Amino acid sequence: MYEEQINAYFDDPKARETLIGAISRLVAVKSVCGEAEPGKPYGPGPAAALAEGLALASEWGFHAENHENYVGSADLNEQETRLHILGHLDVVGEGTGWSTDPYVCTEKDGMLYGRGVSDDKGPVACALMAMKAIKDMGLPVSANVRLIMGTDEESGSSDIAYYYSKHPYAPYTFTPDADFPVIHIEKGHYHPSFGRSWEPETALPRVVRLDGGFRTNVVPPEASCVVAGLTAADVEALAKDIAARTATPFTCTDREEGVCIHCAGKNAHAASPDDGRNAISALLELLARLPLAECESTQAVQSMRVLFPYGDTRGRGLGIARQDDESGPLTLNLALMRLDDTGFSAKFDVRWPVSSNEDNCRRMCEIILAQHGISVTADPEMTPIHRVPADSPFVTALMKSYQTFSGDTKSKPVAIGGGTYVHDIPGGVAFGCCFPGFDPKMHCPDEQADVSMLLSACKIFTHAILELCR
Ligand SMILES: [Zn+2]
User: Fold this and answer.
1) Residue 178 C-alpha to ligand 1 middle, in angstroms?
2) How far is the CA of 149 from the centre of ligand 1 (A)?
3) Distance of CA 220 to CAs 217, 335, 384, Å?
4) CA of 123 to the centre of ligand 1 (A)
């Protein structure tokens, strides 16, 4: 329905020009989260970008409203609201290594470059363009669409929490702050802290200190330890053997207190641990094979090595591996570990699929850890999975719009381990704007967006609005 009209509208060079003009205005405002000021909870940058977004919406004839500089909204009409589209105008810092000015939207060979062109100023402009197209063409809608422009997605999404503390949810919500086709499942999280303590020990050789990882949601790229009673010469040959298997180089240095062993892994997001090389697990593989004295710290090293063997990103060692067709496998990242003379503490990050539950995940972990004398010390809860059924009318409608204008009939709704802007919004899904196979260089230098893809997204959103609000 209305496909030809939608195509004609966005294939007109005027639409292209309008879209790029809008994105350029938004990109020109450096909207990195800053110190709060009176009336500007995220500082002057995000507030200025919001002012620009609202000005754009007003100029295009929409009723625009500033919600105390947390978010702004633009309404398609005065009917009852049926759809929320959630985008954000804050950006992460530009960093270094750009070939263009990050705050000047630059077009080159059909590609836009600039901070926010893909995340998420470009997609916000696409959503607003879709609303404009419906208005300009006078296409029939019997319900309102509210575009909500957030300003704190990159630093915790407190903007959206604020908005929904004062306004109702819409029957349908999507965010164009991720990928096409539709992300309908965001796996549940489980990241307990655990450990064991003991009396100071004297036996040799033993591990006297270990330190690995720096953040729960990152595969630890580094880990190091000190083994008293051994020298580099005792460790080096074995370290070479292990490194050949794990691809994590070890460096051994003699110190007064013993040999210091450093392991270099590779970081990755905890939601895709297969992309990384876990330095803590690799170090444990080495330590568990050294001729250590029988004592508590050795026992801890042995237990941790059994529970989190190198390469196990599925929770097999803990007995919690699960997998299902709808949401894929459970993933696990051993994120942090510290050990000293009186005990150790550690933390892992699990993203669990629909086939996991309290019994086969949390309780199982607690039982297995207890068998090794280890207890959970903090964050024992499993936070719920976010799921909208693939065969629901909402997801079906979005898939239809996507297929109509992308020609991609193979892709299916997607489950991810990470969280999107709608993670806490009942019934919300992520929808665009990045097409399968395209790398937007999100959060990196030379962030990019393909203009023809953005125009396709505009068409898809226009069609989806019609499908949902006709
Ligand atoms: Zn984003």
Assistant:
1) 7
2) 11
3) 9, 6, 25
4) 9
Q: Residues of the chain whose pLDDT is less than 70?
A: none
| H helix intervals, 259-343 | 279-287, 296-307
Ligand 1 centre to CA of 267 (Å) is 21
State residue 330's pLDDT score.
Answer: 97
pTM to 2 decimals? 0.86
Which residues on neighbouring strands pair with residue 222, listed in sequence order? 264
What is residue 3's DSSP assignment? H
From CA 253, how far away is CA 263, in angstroms rounded? 12
Surrounding ion ligand 1 within 5 Å at CB are 119-120, 177
Write the CA distances from 288 to 298, 311, 372, integer angstroms. Answer: 8, 15, 15
For position 1, what pLDDT does the model report? 73
Q: How many whole angstroms from 311 Cα to the centroid of ligand 1?
A: 30
pLDDT digits (tens, 9 = 90+) for 301-312: 999 999 999 999
Q: What is the pLDDT of residue 275?
A: 95
Each residue's pLDDT tens digit, 259-284:
999 999 999 999 999 999 999 999 99
DSSP letters spanning 74-115 = EES-SS-EEEEEEEE--B----S--SS-TTS-EEETTEEEST
- What is the C-alpha separation between 192 and 190, in angstroms, rounded? 6
